[in-house]
Amino acid sequence: MNPDENLNNLATKRLNGEISGEQFRLKLLTASDVKLLKRIAEEFTPHPEVSVPVYQRALELDSRDPDTVVDLGFVHWLCGEDTEARIRLSQAYRLDPGHLKSLLLDAALESDPSRIRKLYASVLETWY
Amino acid sequence: MASLRSGNFSMDLVNIDSSVAAAGTHRRLDRKWESVRGQRFDDRVRLIVHSMDNQPKTPFSRALPPASPAPSTARRQPARAPTWEQQKQILLDTVTKLANVVPKGTNSAGSFFEATVDIENVAGQKVLTTIRWFGYKDGSIVISTAFVP
User: With an 8 Å Cβ cutoff, is A112 touching chain B?
Assistant: First the structure.
């Protein structure tokens, strides 16, 4: 079985409750392919018991990637954990102040319409 | 009363356990619920509703007022609490009816969405509710959170 199938099977077992969160985290320690970890985390995005530890493992291996930081922030946002999402947003801005995905997460977390407009204007400037 | 309970979490929409409400926190749903998570409710839609620990938001399941007591002379049955299946269906119906919702963000698997809408429960009570969900590229969705903004 290749690493892709291994990690996918492991994630599925965690999703189905066949292994505990602790067992899952321990097994993730052997995973070292950041791209694979990110892909699995993205596939399991709305399942935080899988996606959060996988993103965290990816960040252990490469803590300088703002994309991964923001993707994890979006998982927290999705689950209503806005405080955690803001912590990840701050980390991402520190890594890259004009990071496109960070601007989008910032807008998702913002309640002030005028600031949301400014953020989306920045998104368009960054995009084009 | 039709309801599902998990730890200190009440799935009862209408008649909230006062001790649970006073606790001010909700727990994530337990294994019993997680076993339901992978279930597909139709070809296109999956539904997961989390209830967050220590969240300032009021989860949808706690947002509805208690059922009004029936007049003593009317001998009417008090409003029945919606079952968990009914609650899921309420959220599911709401999201699937929404159109042109712009994603808040995307990744390689799909997009993140949020909408705030009035939801009417089976007791006919309307509750302004924010729903967040993830939409996969194949069209299936996973509702992650529902709370009162």
Answer: no
